[in-house]
Amino acid sequence: MHQLILGALELRRGTLGNEHDATVRMISLLGLLHWRQSRLDEAAPLFQDAVDISRRVLGPDHTTTLIYEMNLANVHRAKGRYTAAEPLYAHLVATQPRVRGEEHGDTLNTMGNFANHLQETGRYQEAEGLRRRELEVRRRVQGEKAPGTVSTINNLASDLALLGRHDEAVPEFLEARDADA
Hints:
Largest sheet: none
Oligomer: single chain
Helix content: over 70%
Strand content: under 5%
């Protein structure tokens, strides 16, 4: 599979150029393949290329650019490169509600990913605040028993436990458990 995608990428670069939408999609696809194979060191520069080209050609707030940014932020976070991931997440959380809408799945997933980033960097209070915003929208849009809602409730419980607020965390854990049953 890798060789097929690499061949298609080189063909597109040769015929369409490096900044053509189809070429950039193929760059991102190759990055996703590396990501799924846990080859993060190979995925990161591909995602960076896709972000750089998309920002230049489509603009920093284009939906395609935002998708590529999310991939790059997530791979940075997976590699423990929190300083590199943070400005990407911050841009996404600020931009996606305006561009995609507050209720769009990408917006909600970005909130969850950034909250996870905040939790992983020990900023539990900030994670809790962002997670509560995400949960409010998920409950309203997706319902109480939707997988995304249940996962967010569980993550909120973890935030509360990490803050030492176990009396608040336990009911959230139980709610997530009961909704998942």
